[in-house]
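Hi L.,

As promised, Protein VAC14 homolog:
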Amino acid sequence: MMSEKDFAPLSPACVRMLNEKVYDKRKPAALEIEKMIKEFSARNNTVQIKRLLKVLGQDFAASHNANTRKGGLIGLGAISVGLGKDSGKYIDDLIHPILTCFSDPDVNVRYYACESLYNVVKIARCDVLPLFTDIFSGISKLSCDPEQQIKNATELLDRLMKDIVTDSGMFDLRAFMPILREQIYTKNPFGRQFLISWVSVLDAVPDMDFIIELPEILDGLYKILEDPTPEIKKITDTVLNEFLRSIRANPTRVDYSGMINILITHAQSNDELLQLTAVTWIKEFINLSGKKMLPYTSGILTAILPCFAYDGDNRKSIKDTATQVNQLLMKLITSKDYIVDNSDDKDDDNNKHNVVVVDDDDDDTILGEKLDLVSVVEVLTKNLMHTSVPTKVVVLKWIYCLFINIPDKMNNHIEDLFIVLMKILGDCADDVTQQTLVVFSEIIKTDNINLSSGNNKYFTKFIINLLRLFSKNKTLLEERGAFIIRELCVLLSAEKIYRIMAEILLEEKNLKFACVMIQALNVILLTSSELFELRNKLKDLNSKESQSLFVCLYESWCHNPVATVALCLLGQKYSHACDLVRSFASIEVTVEFLTEIDKLVQLIESPIFTYLRLELLEPEKNEYLVRTLYGLLMILPQSDAFLTLHKRLAAIPPTNSLRNNNKNSIIDHNFKQNNDIDFTMLLKHFEKVQDMHKEHKKRLKKLNLLVDRDSIANQFNDGN
């Protein structure tokens, strides 16, 4: 048993009452302590006041007996009441013992601790602010208490603290941020509600510049927004919207770089509200800070590009917002407002973040002070392999935009991009294929060599790779080949496309593919509106340029006999066409061969060959044309194509000249117009190429026979 002097200045009776189990019996002790403190305060007896604070704070509030701890707490509250306005002088001794009891295992002790602190704070008010972080931590802990009575008491204390903070005008927000940043990552829903309520209250204080400190807690706020509790989601969403309004109102006070990476991370969340909010903030950041966002281009693209994959109503708002972000970001790249001369003057603050002009004469110019082009290209390349068509189209538009605005810098990435672009060229979506071709055309243009020279590195490389792609993927050639070639002819020169393809196919080792490819090119040439000018050039072979083009195509067209005849009909070289048809006698007539003649007959009946059919009105001038058509008729079996061509020939006006067997009397009007093309040499070339095809077929047949023989032998051996 402790002696009376150990509790002085408390009387033995007061000590007994403070240790009572029942609250009503402890209350008189509190009144006695309050009276005692008033007397000490009136006489300015600080020694006795501190002695009493020590007894209650250490001997009672820290006792092993729960009832004694309760007595100490009620006594500390009474001291504060007795001190009144002077409580601030002893605030540390008053509050710290109480806060210690916030972690007490006894629920009643925790409750009385909360009540005691409420009394102290109510009296001291602004004097408690130096201990605000300690008090805040204590209240935060009690807000998660499982006992409802403690939560209710905590709410009263919390409301009082908020009133004091908002009214004081003395609150140190910066000193408070570390504790808020630490606790905001709590996963307890009650703790989250408590923290969000404080953030909301502090942000609403007019003189408190919370925007500056926002980077400290933004990540935590977004994690709370992901909480599954609807109420917490709603409150957090409201708080974030308020912050965004403040940012719009005070854009110059915002630390954009301190928050953008946080937004980029959360913009990739699976939570719909969280993702939409983050993408919306990114949009506002680009709107408000403009060029300051250029260094974060790769991160922003990482966040928004997958959003274009959302279909229909599935996250439509996110997709729409991502579209706006994409447009704003691309505008930063293309807008002239951000373009200045490349300067070495690092002391010029006005030019610190300015975008550098793209100067064709200066290979060292760059777009943006910190535009990490390597990272941007890496992100774009990765998303090119995305399954979403809209995503791939957006990526391709980005690559095109970069080639347009910084071609010199993008040249360093052509080789890596080239491989990936070739992979998606065969995409099943027209939009992807078309945009890929647009990018390739720009790559070719940025090679800085005139296409007419024929030395463009990437032009030749692209066509070679395209033909390889068609060779490996017959389905692509059949289903998408015409579309790809037509688009290329629009984007680049149709003549140059056909010239280089003809030159490459002339040396093609895979003769079967060469035959099929020439057939495809021939059909496109004769039917596509995109090649109208090229057809007209081949119709008029009076110039050296057109003759050179004709010969170039002819040499490769020889891989396909029917296509060669069609080319001669297009160029109105009927005499040579007739010679070619005669040579068909030595060619193996297969189903594929007859099918090609069938298609040629259909083409002759099409609008493309209207001029040819009109020339049949003068058979005496175009007898080689007539003979060519009759030759085709004789080769065809009596099919629909045979009947069509037979009816057409039957419509030719009668003339005696057709019965003249004297070859010298035959007039080929078109042949006489020019004789600069050596058709004798071309015919020899045709025969040489066809001989190559014959030998190729023989080798294939022999190889197939050997394979079949080995297969039969293996089966026989297996049977034995």
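Residues 679-719 form the longest helix (41 residues).

Thanks again for sending the construct details.

K.
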